[in-house]
Amino acid sequence: MSRVTTARGPVRALLSAMRPSQWVKNLIVVVAPAAAGVLTHHDVIGHTAVAFGAFSLLASALYIMNDLRDVEADRAHPTKRARAIAAGELAPSTARAAAVVLGALAFVLGLLVRSPGELEWTLLTYAVLTIAYNVRLKEVAVVEFAIVASGFFLRALAGAAASHLAVSKWFLVVISFGALFLVVGKRSAELGTATAGVTRKVLSEYTARFLESTLTLAASVAVTGYCLWAFDTSAQGLSTLRNDAFPVHLSVIPVVVAVLYILRGALAGEGETPEHLILHNRVVQALGLAWALLLAWAVYR
Question: Which domain covers residue 245, as residue numbers?
Fold first, then answer.
């Protein structure tokens, strides 16, 4: 029996094109103020919420722009053809107008922080890099790693920029190489699929050995950076907890175990997107919760 599909109305189609499920990535803006021990401050909570909202609106605008550009290719794809624009449920003119409005709202929202300059530049950098990636750089081997990973780095930086927080150099290393680790892990898993060359052309530029080596390198630097951050008594933004830093030192354990768990899955061809790991993988969720509780114990008790 054939499956009957129901066409979405314009509102549902627009919401689908905005990809709200992807907004979970933007929770990274919370990391810097949370680690600095100031997330509970009233103004910081507000600024962090602004950064989250601005990145979510901007990301949705960029998703719609990309779908408009790739509409013909999406219609020939077995799964992407169900996207609202490719399926004909969202008119291109409506999609373009929505992308402009969402993008404008993102930058207007960014103006609500006390000194918006740094946050606005972060949003602009993210937009420029994402557009460049969608237009050309996603087909350039290795460079595409850096562009995707930079999206996570910029989100974390936005969380600090929104409240003008000093950020430890080791924190930036962890975010950068942690993001690279997740991106390369996803590529490693994709390479082992039967449709690798169809779904992502750049995969033809990689070998399994290269991706495994890159994955190991990224994991090693991320873990080393986290250890240096956790044990560095002069780290910026951690003065509130250095009288008893044992919980921070202990937080190295769930971080290392989580990296090893994800590394095992990636090398076994089970790599998943970051949002899928956060939302669906119970082991990663448990390790993430343990890490968060240890930091909360140190910073907010």
Answer: 168-301
